[in-house]
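Re: [help] complex structure
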Amino acid sequence: MPDHLIAAYAVLWVLPFILIATIWVRQRRLERQIEHELARMDAAHPAHLDHDNL
Amino acid sequence: MSERDRNRNGIGLGLALTALSGLTMLTAIVMVFRYAPREATMGDVQRIFYFHVSSAWVGFLAFLITALGGLLYLIKGQRRWDALALSSVEVGLTFITMAVVTGSLWAGAAWGTYWTWEPRLTISAIQLMIYVAYLMLRRALDNPEMRARFAAAYGIVASVTVPLSWFAIRWWRTIHPDVLTGGESMAITPRMLHTLLVSLAAFSLLYVTLLLARLRLERARDALDAVRRRFGAD
Amino acid sequence: MSTSAASFARKVWAIVVKDVTAELRTWEMVSAMLVFSLLAVLVFSFALDLQGGLARAAAPGVLWATLAFAGNLGLGRSLAREQHSGCIDGLLLAPVDHSAIFFGKAIGNLLAIGVVGIVLLPVLTVLLDAPLIRPQIILVTLLGAIGYAAAGTLLATMAINTRAREVMLPVLLLPLAMPALIAAVQATAWLIEGGALTEVRNWIGLLVAYDLIIVAVSMLLFGHVVRE
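Output below.
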């Protein structure tokens, strides 16, 4: 199997993987930040939260 | 349907799409390496062609979606269209990079040089620069509303120039053919055509899957902004 | 001409006159563009070692690369000056159609690029031994400049509002100017060798199509980018 073909095949996997990884990392960070904000508000004003309609 | 049910349907759809995307991609890969014939002059290296053309196709499709998203944003003013435009740019950038890199590998394998001003490769390089310019424009604007508006305008005007660039490059190459590559000449047999079509479908589905994942990220960002705005004053 | 078309033309003309008289007072922008252009030609000549046959072959490219870069300077400067003086806000408050503002500014920018072109053609004819002073080549230069000025006016308006300001303009404009640049250079190259205009009608056609599309799209989008 020629080197160039293997390299192209590797690129096919690596690039989308990099994209997925950055999306996943950012998603996790945002979800943590959202939880943090909700927890913060929960501690300060428990009555103001309406989880079902957020 | 409550928000929770809509979320569940969305997740179900996302999983189904991911599975379908994985399946078609697997089929495509098998076809590229096994079903497609071994090309007469280039040998196995020619198989790069399927990856190169498919990723280029998606790279341009994605930018078209960005332009449409931008247009709809300017018309309707709804955040979701700007989210679509931005998401499509990030995913499209991945594919166009793939197109340029595989194209370069193809050139290296076929003609011993890692760059040639072959029409498809050249236009892919220009599209890559347009993607980068789009992201740089967004990054350089602080006001979110202005960012969405300007990005939409740039996406629209840029996408309009792409077909014109395509013709310009083709005519240029016809008048001054590349000494190394000559003209585009590869006989496409039925098996090659089947493989190419399946590849195109697989890459397109992969694009949709990645786009949805990226859109989900935008929704999370919006959710965070909403939470902050709603309770931030307290 | 109907009265609304006439009044539109008058508004456009008023904006052009305003910009031109402002520039004529100091000449600061165009003179900088001209000096830059001459220096750019020198840089190209030394960098590419342009002598003899190579000089002539490179002439169309040198012409358009220089026009593009000088054009960026002019476009960026003219809109920065506008923003600095607060003129755009004044124009927006007045009952002037956004498209009239667009045409007025674009024509002004075209004139600036045109002045550079008028100087460059004879300079390059002499320096690079390339017969550039032919009406066909002047036509091609004009067509290319129109598209560049139109797209440039729209994009400069955006660029000025970014953190990078004018520096953002080349990044945005150059990829979009490719069709015009390729067509103009190829047509000019053919015309330099004594070709007839009909032989380059493909390129002319592309330039005209590019100009029409870009002017229309830029005009339509201008309203969206000119307000704060």
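The radius of gyration of chain B is 20 Å.
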